[in-house]
């Protein structure tokens, strides 16, 4: 991340810390010290006083700064929230003071999206998203930075390795995917034997969120890393093309092309073509639902609305094995209906009415498709045979109720559905998994729950085929 990219988030955090005189000479070395056996255990007061104002934009700065707020005593947190005119516990009863402070900072920083060029918005989002991630998820075994690693690894130590690959997109241009794999090191007397660890013979295809306009492989790296680490499944993250340069349904076509690539190459991940999983958050959750729908029940007329390019995608769909399951997180499923959550949570949170309007216009204004179309709104399509689904909703989210509506529709069709709602969580909460303790625990719980959901499907299928 270039140092010249200045984050407005850091500016406000700096002012906030200075206003309460919480600055000292120590900057962002606390997490590095956590791994040292010689680390001095600090009192809460010492921890509070150990954080400097953030004067320079550096990689992972937000991770240290936002995480540090969790160490503050409750009265200090409430003072900060009051200073920023943030939300009270009465407004959001399931939200602790640490998260309310995060929301308050966001509210103060928020610039109306229509005032920002999309290219600049992408840079800002990418910078802030990566800056909030833990440095640990960016370390790979074999990096030169690991020169001081211990020569003897622990028995059965796991490591996550990832590699970027270039594949063709839906129009035969270049598209990047990032492939994560978990490896186990069985060690003894300094000798290490590394083996791939994929006992479920599954692979997960992930689609990042960002309103179909922002986001990339890096913005969702931490979550994909966690998916791979917790489940042992290989994860393939897709860097599909973005609007407005590439309006709907370009992203859908790119993601179907990535699915077709994965079908052809799943053996290299130790996976079976019949055990491909789908997942994504927000816009990526919507892509997951659309791709599951169109792979299982492709709509020829809908694709022919795109002419030759649509015919090409439809031809690909005819030969793809069905996904085994999907996990859409706070997904976009219905672009027209005004659900109650639209009014309840459309202002003052991480995603508001104005944001949705900007992303909506960028995706649809120059699309070849009409606004209400099967390939832009999953609830309009045929979901009678969609794969088993683990649907995740955030309580404080303008999109909450359309996630519920989608899950309800699938249940009415007799599809196996499990719905998990994270109380007190805003839209996009997975970006806070390593800086907010409860949201980190909730994210781990979601991944564990989906893994159990999938393994039960595998078990049931095995019994039925026996």
Tell me what the structure shows.
By secondary structure, this protein is α/β, with parallel strands linked by helices. Helices cover 40% and strands 15% of the residues. It is built from 16 helices and nine strands. The chain has helices spanning 8-19, 30-34, 44-49, 61-69, 74-83, 97-109, 118-132, 221-231, 250-265, 283-296, 300-304, 308-317, 340-344, 353-364, 400-412, 437-465; strands spanning 157-168, 174-188, 191-196, 203-207, 235-238, 276-281, 325-329, 389-396, 417-426. Strands 1, 2, 3, 4, 5, 6, 7, 8 and 9 form a nine-stranded mixed sheet that branches. Helix 8 packs across helix 16 and helix 9 packs parallel to helix 12. The protein is globular and about 60 Å long. 44% of the residues are buried. The model is unreliable at 1-9, 15-40, 44-57, 145-156 and 187-191 (pLDDT under 50).
What are its keywords?
9-stranded mixed beta sheet; 466 residues; 9 strands; alpha/beta; disordered N terminus
Q: SSE layout and pairings?
A:
Layout: H1 8-19, H2 30-34, H3 44-49, H4 61-69, H5 74-83, H6 97-109, H7 118-132, E1 157-168, E2 174-188, E3 191-196, E4 203-207, H8 221-231, E5 235-238, H9 250-265, E6 276-281, H10 283-296, H11 300-304, H12 308-317, E7 325-329, H13 340-344, H14 353-364, E8 389-396, H15 400-412, E9 417-426, H16 437-465
Parallel strand pairs: 4-5, 4-6, 6-7, 7-8, 8-9
Antiparallel strand pairs: 1-2, 2-3, 2-5
Helix pairs in contact: 1-6, 5-6, 8-16, 9-10, 9-12
Short description:
By secondary structure, the chain is of the alpha/beta class.
